[in-house]
Automatic annotation (TrEMBL):
Residues 1-23 form the signal peptide. This is LPS-assembly protein LptD. It holds the Pfam family LptD. InterPro entries: LipoPS_assembly_LptD (IPR020889), LptD (IPR050218), LptD_C (IPR007543), OstA-like_N (IPR005653). Keywords: Cell outer membrane, Membrane, Signal. One of its GO terms (biological process) is Gram-negative-bacterium-type cell outer membrane assembly. Together with LptE, is involved in the assembly of lipopolysaccharide (LPS) at the surface of the outer membrane. It comes from Pseudidiomarina maritima. The gene is lptD.
């Protein structure tokens, strides 16, 4: 035994064969930025003793008394004991050099890096490799979870608490705590177990559990998550109790039974997987017998989403949601589709990518919700795109496609389409201007099998050349506004488009629809999506866009407007509806976007018909956004001649932090044409460092698509009202959804307005 005298402090190194009580410190962030972890019990850590061998005990004290016969060393006054990662601070301690046992009395502080303990005494049994502390107050170092224990014992992998309490609330008078006959904290697994536990709120016992396991860090663990309670006119009282399975580090699952008083019990399940080359998520929801329907029908939803990569060139993606009936989303809801969605889109895709080639093979399917004309499935579609630089600003590209379509209801209604389109383009770009000239030739061949539509031909084909020329001028100047310097840009542009007319009435409509005529859409080469209709064109598009940039090159304002002038009216139509142009010019497209300040934005888009002096479409949004917890959005939109009904609506959406603990979220959409509220939602949440409670309510139109044959309800509509209550105990479980996320439950979910670029 070596003795070293340092400024009246004894340092004694004892060679004993006892293992240190050691555990890895769990990694966990603070519960909240406004809820700091309580101050550690060890405010001033013990300075490490240099060159202390592993397994040896180092001691500092004001005075030491060593009995050479019993080989027991006694230390008095400001005693500091260090053995491996463990530290002990007390007023007096005894160390048996033969057994390695340590006994300390009086006020004692102990830590092993995982837990800090303040106790009345301390005893280390070297033979059992376990430390005992009575009358203890403890605190987990990283998480701040704390409590009291009549007796606390520690081994290398376990903290055992008898007659103890546990809470993650940082205050001395916690809102909630768990008191138990025995609590075990497993350092390696980062979870705890409790036997004969009472759950207390505000000091009042509210729940007794013979056994419970709970997380003590953010690491995942199998177990029950906190339930959600709700009530609505359509479903009655609801309760959902999820159970989480931590299958593997890259794999988990959740099963969530959902009881609805008016419908029955719905089983919901989710499985997720993650690898270095891809990820997947699979969901299913099944209600065996819906008591609210006349035939007690079974109702279900299932969904698959999978991404995969093979090397640098191959990619695959699958995504699809399937439901039992058109009203499933309206009645039962889903996290994967909105209640106002009019269709479900599913597709599987395989891509090959290289420097010059892009090849895609896909299968896609649309399910229209409501009694509409059945769409076609694409089973399969193979597309390729080849592009190369010929030099001298000349580019050559070749687009080709082969698609097979099948009607969802009529199996004999099929078609195969082959399309080839080479294109030669010349693009010249200079600081002050740029222009583009394109010349392409498209050939399309069909093989159609049909029974009902006699207007279609068996093997129609179509050959169409296209010439497109577009030029832009980039103007720039510096201006001063209210003693601030800005850069003002003006970009006028003009485009000429020529496509000759071809009779395409013998071709069925498989994947084509009319595209939006906004400002950017005015300069497209095609009026219809897909390839079944290529509209003839002999037209000039004129437009201009003007922007204002501040000294930090941030765009603070933009105004764009444009219009198409027809030299000849387009005769190409889509289905039986008249989509041919009959006027000499298109609607005037006008877009305005303003960054009023760093937090406020204004966005407006209008399509105005100068011939009829009326607005066809408009959408205006004003949003103040401080962060995701504080924003207010006002909106107005109009649509004329939509299913012979005009639409004009105003809306308000807001999320406001009333105080550090109270948050309010609400939206409201009002129909000016019918003088009624179409959708309203409000949620109030209280949240502090220990717990949270969320109360929400909604009122929305009942979109019964099957009853209304997919059309808007005539007369006064039915409304569905509901409330939901959710209670969250922080530290034992959590709900990561913000109040802004909850607004997606409404018919008109939150949409972020267009942000000007920086």
């Amino acid at each position: 035994m070596a003795k070293i005298f340092q400024t009246s402090i004894w340092t004694v190194a004892l060679s004993v064969s006892c293992a240190a009580v050691h555990a890895q410190q769990p990694s966990r962030p603070a519960l909240s930025e406004v809820c700091p972890v309580p101050a550690p019990l060890f405010t001033t850590p013990i300075s490490p003793i240099k060159d202390l061998p592993i397994g040896a005990i180092g001691v500092r004290a004001d005075r030491a008394d060593i009995d050479s016969e019993s080989e027991v060393a006694s230390f008095f006054g400001n005693v500091e004991v260090q053995f491996d990662q463990q530290q002990l601070r007390t007023e007096q301690a005894q160390i048996d050099q033969q057994t390695g046992n340590i006994n300390a009395s009086g006020s004692t502080l102990f830590t092993d890096g995982y837990v800090q303990v303040s106790s009345e005494n301390f005893r280390l049994n070297s033979g059992e490799n376990r430390a005992f502390l009575s009358g203890a107050e403890y605190q987990l170092t990283e998480t701040g979870a704390h409590g009291k224990a009549d007796l606390l014992s520690l081994s290398p992998a376990q903290v055992l608490l008898e007659g103890s309490t546990f809470t993650t609330c940082p205050s001395d008078s916690p809102v909630w705590q768990m008191s138990a006959q025995e609590i075990s904290l497993n350092e390696d697994e980062a979870w705890g177990e409790a036997w004969h536990a009472k759950f207390e709120l505000f000091g009042v016992p509210v729940l007794y559990l013979p056994y419970i396991n709970f997380p003590v860090t953010e690491e995942r663990k199998s177990g029950f998550l906190f339930p959600t309670f709700g009530s609505s006119q359509k479903n009655g009282f609801e309760v959902e109790v999820p159970y989480y399975f931590n299958i593997a580090p890259n794999m988990d699952a959740t099963i969530a039974p959902r009881y609805m008083a008016e419908r029955g019990v719905q089983m919901q399940a989710e499985f997720r997987t993650l690898s270095t080359t891809g990820s997947g998520q699979y969901n299913v929801a099944y209600l065996e017998s819906d008591k609210s329907t006349e035939d007690n029908a079974a109702r279900y939803l299932w969904r698959v989403e999978q991404t995969q990569r093979w090397g640098e060139n191959w990619r695959a993606y699958v995504n699809g949601t399937f439901i039992s009936d058109d009203d499933y989303l309206n009645d039962l809801g889903s996290d994967f589709a909105g209640r106002a969605d009019a269709q479900l889109y599913r597709h599987a895709q395989l891509d090959y990518l290289s420097d010059d080639w892009q090849v895609t093979m896909r299968a896609e399917d649309f399910e229209l919700l409501g009694s509409y004309r059945s769409p076609y499935r694409t089973m399969p579609q193979i597309k390729s795109f080849y592009a190369t630089d010929l030099g001298l600003d000349l580019d050559f590209s070749l687009f080709s496609e082969m698609s097979h379509f099948q009607n969802q209801d009529l199996s004999q209604d099929t078609a195969t389409r082959v399309h080839v389109e080479p294109q030669l383009s010349f693009h010249l770009e200079q600081p002050g201007y740029d222009w583009l000239a394109e010349l392409s030739y498209a050939y399309t061949y069909y093989n159609q099998e049909f029974e009902l539509e006699r207007s279609r031909s068996k093997n129609p084909s179509r050959s169409l050349p296209t010439f497109r020329w577009r030029g832009r001028v980039n103007l720039e100047r510096t201006i001063d506004i209210q003693q601030q310097s800005y850069t003002h840009t003006l970009q006028p542009q003009i485009q000429y488009l020529y496509i000759p007319y071809r009779d395409q009435t013998g071709i069925g409509i498989y994947d084509s629809t009319l595209m939006q005529d906004d400002y950017q859409g005015l300069f497209r080469a095609r009026r219809f999506s897909g390839l079944d209709r290529i509209a003839d064109a002999n037209q000039v598009t004129i437009g201009a866009s003007s922007s204002l940039f501040d000294q930090q090159a941030r765009e603070v304002a933009r105004v764009s407007f444009g219009q198409i002038y027809y030299f000849e009216n387009s005769e190409t139509q889509l289905l039986e509806s008249s989509t041919a142009t009959t006027e000499s010019r298109s609607d005037l497209a006008l877009e305005t976007r303003f960054r009023i300040n760093n937090n406020m934005y204004f966005n407006s888009s209008i399509q105005y018909n100068l011939e009829l002096d009326s607005t066809r479409k408009s959408q205006t949004t004003l949003e103040y956004r401080l962060d995701e917890f504080n924003l207010i959005q006002l909106s107005h939109r109009t649509v004329t001649n939509l299913l012979e009904n005009d639409v004009e609506q105003v809306g308000m959406l807001g999320v406001v932090e009333l105080s550090p603990t109270w948050q309010l979220a609400s939206n409201w959409y009002y129909d000016l044409q019918n003088n009624r509220t179409n959708d309203a939602f409000i949620a109030l949440q209280y949240s502090d460092c220990c717990w949270a409670m969320r109360i929400s309510g909604y009122r929305r139109i009942n979109r019964n698509l099957e009853l209304n044959a997919g059309m808007p309800a005539v007369g006064e509509p039915e409304f569905d009202n509901g409330i939901s209550v959710q209670f969250i105990i922080k530290g034992l479980g959590s709900d990561n959804r913000s109040l802004l996320d909850m607004l997606e439950q409404s018919l008109f979910g939150y949409r972020h307005p267009f942000h000007l670029s920086n």
